[in-house]
Amino acid sequence: MLRVMLVEDSRPLREALIAGLEQSAQVTVVAQTERGEAALEQCLADPPDVVLMDVGLAGEMNGIQAAVALRRELPRLPVVFYSIQDDDEYFRAFRQAGILSHYAYVRKSNYLLPAMIVPLLRDAVAGRSFIDPEIEARVQEVRLKDEFSPMSLLEPTEQAVAALLAQGLSNEQIAARLGFHDKRSVSRVNGQIYTAWALGDTTTDEKVARTRASLVVRAGRLIQWRTDGSAWVQDERGAWLPWESA
Question: What is the span of the domain harbouring residue 16?
């Protein structure tokens, strides 16, 4: 009999899941909560065999953050995630969490029936892992987006300046917004942005480089301007294509 902790912030769904899982005669739900913080406390007090957890939760932690916190204290604790979320940030958080084994991550609409959940719980306990193909596709989409994002080439302060530059703020306004003591620091940061994005060659004046940096932020992709003025963008495979045809 699997001892399961259920972490779900919808009370009706939580009750339905408990009833369905326990009717399988293979699972007993030993703890339940709507918050990741409470899940951590309960697991430390009485570790279950496996955690069944929604990704979107009440409280400060989402399900992925809660799993990371749980595994910090209980290494490789089996976790089965489910979610209807389709926000890049959830998939980014999952990828960055580095969860490698003893888990499953599935779409709520595809797998949230007791007859389908129980095998996933057993597999996670046995150390086997599974990721829903739809979620895997979205995780890879976010990975490619991040790896080819121009912002990935910048340090945090440079990212903040670039974002405000793209909103049309002046150096003085950016300095005030970000709390720089010297507005000339913004010019120095701008120079680093232009260099990182190959916009700072000697034939390009600052106004042109600034405009082009704004376009890069807005496009979310690196852009190269050739000597004839044509703009080329980098696709997800790293190839350069004319902007108008990309």
Answer: 2-147
**Cβ neighbours of residue 216 closer than 8 Å, sequence gap 6 or more:** 150, 162, 197, 199, 222, 223
| Cα angle 10, 16, 21; round to 5 | 120
Examine the domain organization and report whether 15 and 94 are in the same domain: yes
Residues 63 and 137 in one domain: yes
Total domains in the chain come to 2
Amino acid at 186: V
The Cα–Cα gap between 1 and 23 comes to: 12
Domain boundary among 98, 115, 147: 147
> What pLDDT, in 10s, does the model give residues 63-94?
999 999 999 999 999 999 999 989 888 998 99
Check if the beta carbon of residue 144 is closer than 8 Å to that of residue 168: no
pTM: 0.68
From 110, 131, 147, the end of a domain falls on 147
Query: Residue 14 and residue 126: Cα distance in Å, rounded?
Result: 25
How many Cβ atoms sit within 10 Å of the Cβ of residue 181?
Answer: 7
| Tokens, residue 126 | 């046995």
Provide φ and ψ at 238, rounded to 5°: 90, 0
Size (the chain), residues: 246
